[in-house]
Each structure stands twice: as structure tokens, then as C-alpha cells.
């Protein structure tokens, strides 16, 4: 990217914001009508929180993605990870927001089998967000929570259209940790994942916290990558997905509804479910 345009790193052709090629190095003849020469398709873009968002629709973009502005809060530091998963978008979003797989896929790290906790989850679906709020959970019984968390009072899982899954953990001091993961297509059943982690600032520098957390989160990420890859292999093996949902699939329904229709149900809803997990 250069000032006022995009430049190809191979031959230096430069395109303006409308997709027209305005510079071809080595050709001395000026363009009378640049839009008629070697134009490419242009997309609406917006830069937000260090990421460039692209609107693939030909309709005017009404707004940028509705995200909490953790970047604007000086109480938090952050760092960005990029990874990749083999999954469809709905499956990847659900994986990050689903708590019921954690005693099995992440046993010992997030939750542990045989050490169930009782808590409740309230699901709220509004015009802009599908959210699950967890109460009464306390610290999870895995190593990550025990080593890095204060006593947890609330946690949230959110689907923020079009492609963001958000986790937020709160203690008595307020929000302690936020994970925003944005999923973008990288190929058939393959997604790039851009994850920004926000951590409340303390006397311990953010770079130290990142160094301490990274081995645990890399392990958790690898476990999720493996289980999603296995899921995709089974879907291909048996000729397509044939899922069965249950009460514990808190956000799968709203996710699928939005991906299918481009909106959440017209009537806001709220449901509370009790867990022993």
C-alpha cells in the first residue's frame, strides 16, 4: 500500500481507490481515461482496531463492525495472534464460544473431567449481538484459570456479526481479560483467525504476561485446531453435516440464523440454562 493507492510489488502497477490502474511504470503514454484501462474490482474498506475490514457486498456499508472499543481504554494492553483453522464459519465461531467441549478437548487446561462446577448461563439475542452470560462459575478448575485469574464473577461469550467471537471475563475489579477473534475465509472450509487479546494492566508488564500466557494458549489453540479438523474430516467422510443440537448449544442457533438471513430474529429473546460442567 502506498499513498492514495495500492501498488503491485511485481511490476509496480498502481490502482486508485476506485480500482482504476493509474500508473504503469515503463509506459510513458498518460491515461486519458484511467477507469477504462486495466481496472480491478474495488471494495468498501474501513480500518478499525489495527485491522482492515472489507465489505464484499455491492450495497453501501451501513457501519463498521460493532465491537467493544477495548483499544481506547488505557487500562488494557493487547497483542495480536494470527492462526488458521480447517472449519466452516459457524463451526469455528461455535467452537470458540462453546463451554461444553472444554472438559474433554482442553481437560486440565480450561476445565477438568470429574471436577464439575454448577453455574447458570443466560442467553440474550438482540438486534446486534447474541450473548451468553455465565454466573456462579468462579474460577474454572483448569491450570489457566488457577494461575492467571482472580476469582471470576461473570463471563460472557458473544457473537458479533459478521464474523467475530468475543470472550470477556470479569472479577470484582471489573473486566480482566477479553479475546476478540475475527474469522475470514482462506479457502474451502479453511479460515484465517485474527485474535486480539486484551489484558488489564498491572505492575507486571504486558510483554511479560504475554510470554507467560502464550504457551498455554498455543496449546489450547492446537487442541481446537485438531478437533475442528477431525470434525471436517468426518463431515467429508459421511457426505455432509448432520448435527443434532441440545440446550447446551447456547449460541449455535443465533449464529446460524444470522449467517443464513443476515439478521438476528426480529423479537429479542432471553433464556436461562443451568449447567453442571
Structural notes for this entry:
The longest helix has 32 residues, at 206-237. Helix content is 22%, strand content 32%. It starts with 5 loop residues before the first strand and ends with a strand. The protein has 277 residues and is α+β, with helices and mostly antiparallel strands. It has 5 helices and 13 strands. The chain has an 8-stranded antiparallel beta sheet with strand order 6-12-11-10-9-8-7-13, with helices on one face. The protein folds into 2 domains: 6-42, no CATH class; 70-237 and 253-258 and 266-276, Naphthalene 1,2-dioxygenase Alpha Subunit, Chain A, domain 1 (Alpha-Beta Complex), CATH 3.90.380.10. 20% of the residues are buried. The mean pLDDT is 85.
Describe the structure concisely.
The chain has helices at 89-97, 102-105, 143-148, 206-237, 252-261, and strands at residues 6-7, 14-15, 21-23, 44-48, 51-55, 76-85, 118-125, 130-135, 154-160, 164-171, 174-187, 190-200, 269-276.
How is this fold's topology laid out?
Elements: E1 6-7, E2 14-15, E3 21-23, E4 44-48, E5 51-55, E6 76-85, H1 89-97, H2 102-105, E7 118-125, E8 130-135, H3 143-148, E9 154-160, E10 164-171, E11 174-187, E12 190-200, H4 206-237, H5 252-261, E13 269-276
Antiparallel strand pairs: 1-2, 2-3, 4-5, 6-12, 7-8, 7-13, 8-9, 9-10, 10-11, 11-12
Amino acid at each position: 500500500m502506498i499513498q492514495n493507492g495500492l501498488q503491485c510489488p511485481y511490476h509496480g502497477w498502481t490502482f486508485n481507490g476506485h480500482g482504476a490502474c493509474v500508473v504503469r511504470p515503463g509506459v510513458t503514454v498518460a491515461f486519458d481515461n484511467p477507469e477504462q484501462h486495466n481496472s480491478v474490482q474495488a471494495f468498501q474498506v474501513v480500518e478499525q482496531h489495527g485491522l482492515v475490514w472489507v465489505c464484499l457486498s455491492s450495497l453501501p456499508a451501513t457501519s463498521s463492525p460493532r465491537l467493544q472499543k477495548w483499544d481506547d481504554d488505557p487500562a488494557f494492553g493487547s497483542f495480536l495472534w494470527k492462526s488458521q483453522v480447517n472449519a466452516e464459519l459457524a463451526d469455528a465461531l461455535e467452537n470458540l464460544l462453546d463451554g461444553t467441549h472444554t472438559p474433554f478437548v482442553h481437560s486440565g487446561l480450561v476445565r477438568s473431567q470429574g471436577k464439575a462446577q454448577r453455574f447458570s448461563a443466560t442467553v440474550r439475542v438482540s438486534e446486534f449481538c447474541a450473548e451468553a452470560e455465565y454466573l456462579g462459575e468462579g474460577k474454572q478448575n483448569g491450570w489457566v484459570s488457577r494461575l492467571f485469574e482472580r476469582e471470576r464473577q461473570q463471563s460472557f461469550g458473544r457473537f458479533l456479526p459478521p464474523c467475530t467471537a468475543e470472550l470477556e471475563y470479569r472479577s470484582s475489579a471489573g473486566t480482566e481479560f477479553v479475546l476478540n477473534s475475527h474469522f475470514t475465509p482462506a479457502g474451502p472450509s479453511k479460515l484465517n483467525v485474527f485474535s486480539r487479546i486484551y489484558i488489564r494492566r498491572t505492575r507486571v508488564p504486558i510483554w511479560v504476561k504475554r510470554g507467560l500466557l502464550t504457551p498455554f494458549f498455543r496449546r489450547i489453540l492446537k487442541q481446537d485446531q485438531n478437533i475442528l479438523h477431525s470434525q471436517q474430516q468426518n463431515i467429508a467422510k459421511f457426505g455432509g453435516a448432520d448435527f443434532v443440537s441440545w440446550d447446551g448449544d447456547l449460541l449455535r442457533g443465533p449464529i446460524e440464523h444470522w449467517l443464513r438471513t443476515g439478521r438476528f430474529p426480529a423479537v429479542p429473546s432471553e433464556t436461562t440454562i443451568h449447567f453442571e460442567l
